[in-house]
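User: quick one, fold this
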Amino acid sequence: AGTSSKLAVIGGIVSIAFVDAFSDSLAMHVSEESRGGNTSREVHESTLSAFLAKLLVALVFLPAVVFMEMFAGIVANIVLGMLLLAVFSYYVAKERGNSPLYTISEHVLAGLAVIAITYFIGRWVAATFGG
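Assistant:
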């Protein structure tokens, strides 16, 4: 968003969706293989599940940018992202017996920091390498 280019944002979402899904599924594959005790089928199912989950979650952010004005799409995606982060954090906290409020707060603040940092990196890229 820091570049103010809709095409750059769309390209970033699609690129990140696939690159992140591939890298995390490869990490899952290696982890499951090295852990031992899993069949080849279980390893491959974990790999595919990780890939599809990461890909689909990332691609959920695409329609808002494609079909809405840039600013509205970005705001909608920030809200969606924070909502997803809060929901996932709630389940992680409950599973681990931790305070959901603390875990959600911690993760949402980290998410907002990531958004701010990447925004300013985008602005720097646009200023440094833009036309």
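User: anything notable?
Assistant: The radius of gyration is 17 Å.
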